Amino acid sequence: MAIHRRDFLSNSALLAASTAFLGSGSQLLADHHESHGEGGKSIKPLFEISLAEWSLHTALRANEFTNLDFPRITKEEFSISAVEYVNQFFKDKAKDADYLKELDTRCKDNGVKSVLIMVDGEGNLGEPAENKRRAAVENHFKWVEAAKTLGCHSIRVNARSQGSFTDQLNLAADGLRQLCEFADDHEINVIVENHGGLSSNGAWLAAVMELTDHPRVGTLPDFGNFWITRPNAKKNITGEQYDRYKGVAQLMPYAKGVSAKSHDFDNKGNETATEYNRMLGLVTGWGYDGYIGIEYEGKKLGEFEGIKATKKLLERVRDDLTGHHHH
């Protein structure tokens, strides 16, 4: 469900009023989540789990399998029924009708839903020069059409820009609005991830959403990715990191997708950088009940093991939160 702008201020005030509320999985907003069947069993889970293709980037780059195999592997190896594509793994296929039809068939054969396409390398929607900005917008059109063909609800784009905070705000909103106007004809959303630079500043990206002011625009909050500038020991740069809980809280009112970033796990199976209980409490507290995409980027566990560990953690926390919601 989308949180409407008119509700945003009251919700923000509510969040600000109580940090305990933030940590608790927000019982106040949670009660409407689930309809009950007989015997009080939940019909609809608190959220669904999808697999982001980037979790398998090492195997894909090594040609162990291809993007066409991604739906089958998602189902067979992980028992996950929804996929989030990364365009670089089929970058010359956006307009290839036969290829997209085959990919869609593979999804249907495996009972897998296509959720979104993460689009990189097509130019920055916040380019300062107007002609370059327009070119970037138009470069994304083919991915909007491909997303529609595959039955996705969104494409994920980058809002990178240059200049002052305000300049970048205006430029990104302009590029996004232009793309949304095209995407609206195809019933596809254009969503922005916190993905470095000012896009990792929750307040900036929320302001971009407000300024874009289009029903098709939204966010894809990622639990990690909050480095505004990365640390660099050689250059003696400590780096600037935005608080991930604050950032996700600021992005959730506009969320049309969520990425569960994971790197490492402790011996209890908890992710070491993100408190999943707290983060998922925050996500579901906003009334979000769509797909949460597993984006494993760790080095210690192999890709398959890392995906499985993330799935297990998401399921465990979902069970905990579902229990909370029904005291």
Q: Give me the side-by-side strand order of the main sheet.
A: 6-5-4-3-2-1-10-9
CATH superfamily: Divalent-metal-dependent TIM barrel enzymes
Distance between the termini: 23 Å
* CATH level 1 class label: Alpha Beta
CATH topology: TIM Barrel
Unreliable residue stretches: 3-38
Q: Structural class, please?
A: alpha/beta
Q: Architecture, CATH level 2?
A: Alpha-Beta Barrel
Number of helices: 13
The ordered H/E elements are HHHEHHEHEHHEHEHEEEHEHEH
Shape: globular
The radius of gyration computed from the alpha-carbon positions, rounded to a whole number of angstroms, is 19 Å
Number of DSSP-assigned strands: 10
Give average pLDDT, whole number: 90
Instruction: Name the beta content range.
Output: 5-15%
Helix content: 40-55%
Keywords:
alpha/beta; eight-stranded parallel beta sheet; two-stranded antiparallel ribbon; 13 helices; 44% helix; globular; disordered N terminus; isomerase activity; Xyl_isomerase-like_sf; Xylose isomerase-like TIM barrel
Description:
Keywords: Isomerase. With 327 residues, the chain is of the alpha/beta class. The chain has one domain: Divalent-metal-dependent TIM barrel enzymes (TIM Barrel), CATH 3.20.20.150. 44% of the residues lie in helices and 14% in strands. The chain contains 13 helices and 10 strands. It has helices at 5-17, 19-23, 27-30, 57-61, 70-78, 97-110, 130-139, 141-150, 165-185, 202-212, 244-251, 276-285, 303-325; strands spanning 48-52, 82-86, 113-118, 154-157, 189-193, 217-220, 227-229, 240-241, 258-262, 291-296. The strands form 2 sheets. The chain has an 8-stranded parallel β-sheet, covered by helices on one side. Strand 2 (82-86), helix 6 and strand 3 form a beta-alpha-beta unit. Helix 5 (70-78) runs parallel beside helix 6 (97-110), helix 7 (130-139) packs parallel to helix 9 and helix 10 (202-212) runs parallel beside helix 11 (244-251). The longest helix has 23 residues, at 303-325. The radius of gyration is 19 Å and the shape is globular. The model is unreliable at 3-38 (pLDDT under 50).
